[in-house]
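Internal QA ticket QA-208
Title: Verify multi-chain structure generation after dependency bump
Assignee: T.L.

Test input:
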Amino acid sequence: MTTENAGTLITGVIGADTHIVGNRILGRALETAGFTVVQLGALTPAKEFVEAAIETDADAILVSSLYGQGELDCRGFRELCTEAGLEDILIYVGGYLVVGDQPWPDVERRFVEMGFDRVFPPGTRPDDVIGPLRDDIKMRHETNRS
Amino acid sequence: MTLALLIDFGSTYTKLRAVDLQAAKIVASAQGPSMVKTDINIGLDAALEALKPQLGKRLNFKYRLASSSAAGGLRMITLGLVPDLTAKAARQAALGAGAKVSATYSFELTLADLAEIIASEPDIVLLSGGTDGGNRKVIVHNAQMIANSGLTCPVVIAGNRSAADEVAAILSATQTRVIVSENVMPRHLELNIEPAREAIRQVFIDHIIHAKGIDQAQASVDAVLMPTPAAVLQGAQLLADGTRDLTGLGPLLVVDIGGATTDVHSICDGLPGDSGVIYHGLAEPHAKRTVEGDLGMRHTARNIVHETGLQVFADDAGLDPLELETMLARTDGDVEWLPDNDRERKFDRALARAATRLAVTRHAGHHETVYSAHGPVTLQRGKDLNEVETIIGTGGVLVHSQDAHAILSTALAGPDAPLALRPKSAKMVVDKDYALYACGLLSSVAPDIALRLGLNMLHKEEACHGVGSA
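Actual output:
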């Protein structure tokens, strides 16, 4: 590896969702920003995010959902991580998470309650994710060291 | 006539094939008892004596190469992290190296796991876990467990390379040999089992042959190259892929039905044939071997019937369930039992058909339909065997059957498992001379001759073309 790894990330589109283009763009941007990215692509079951994170000792899982079923697919995701021994892994979620015109603060609250560390609305740019991700991973490493 | 001698030190018999290297044909065959517990030379010498009259002159061989599955074969334990990821990759590496994998463990070993491992008396442990730069905690824990277990067997390390030095340091004080190989899954879902396979083979040559007393035969043998299942896999790969100068048969499948296990080898890439199908999960090896320890013609006949369903099995055999039970009771009591009337042969044929069907279904990948917002999407896990054009059968029941094609045809796609990606149609042929292991061994020194030997063997056997029904 030529530069220091800013962190290992798992990305993918959860559930029966085939929207892959935005996820690939995000993955590319994260790689350019110095992260090691394992891109699971579309149609990824929750279990496979977790398995990939175990083997790669990932810092964060970035879950995308763009077909309105995200709330169903993401239910229990934090618990799945905890059960698998990934108690302190960062989990982010973003995309068109729910159907219809629901107020964003409500949507965000629901996903935070499900255990996601950060929730991103439609139209999020990669840069909006990279900044917080660096901070969160840095903090995670410091916590683990102490 | 320049000859090569190809030897298989088996669990019961030492088998010999003498190959005329110009004609690329088997010119003599013989066997003797394996006698590995007393002196392997006794059986080998007896077999060589039996070979002499067939060759009609002094035995003078340019090559004398052997494979071995004697003294329990190459017993291995494989360790990984996640069951569907590194644990699966490690198991594939060991099977591909021709091992008999007693068990595969995932995550951190427990004391109970360790007790099982010690009881299984492994010849080699393959230790994997974590992608390169990934999880190191588990492989380090497992290395410590092995180091403290009292086991002294060789260990091949094929896990997270960032942890390899630490793992090797933990094990080097206690194990007779520690080899650091490349990771079996260096990046997520990327399979890399060739280096680990090669490391296992090296340990087999350097240590296991001696430990099992097979090296006593060194006066009559130039080299014991690999475990016999690895020779069969290598022979199959040579036949399928060809050599630099000669074209092979293309994608093929080998079904080896034995008393204790049914082995399936496939040589093909097995990627989705249809651009609309999405591949999911760990990549599969081009040369893949699976071993079904619960699908043996004798030791586990009852399980074959159970898994098929009693009535379905009885119908296929043309026997009534009561008669079936009588025959099953005989296989339970006597694993050496051989059929000697028509009813019993029907029973054996049905067992072999079911074992083939189940073993190939497990070996093959499968389709899975996911209903997305854009309509149904087809996912593929494992290998699509549709590209397979040739199915080669081997093992006693096929060699002695009058109706081998009816057994092999159950490897083809069928309504019993419509989503399993078994071959749709293929040419089927039986390796009656038991030449595949000889091809594999000979390919190490003379690949073109070995390939011609295999092709000659297949051409002389009666082939049949079969078409699946799903």
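Spot checks passed. Chain B touches chain A at residues 81-82, 84-86, 129-131, 133-137, 185, 187-188, 278, 280, 370-374, 377, 379 (CB under 8 Å).
Status: verified.
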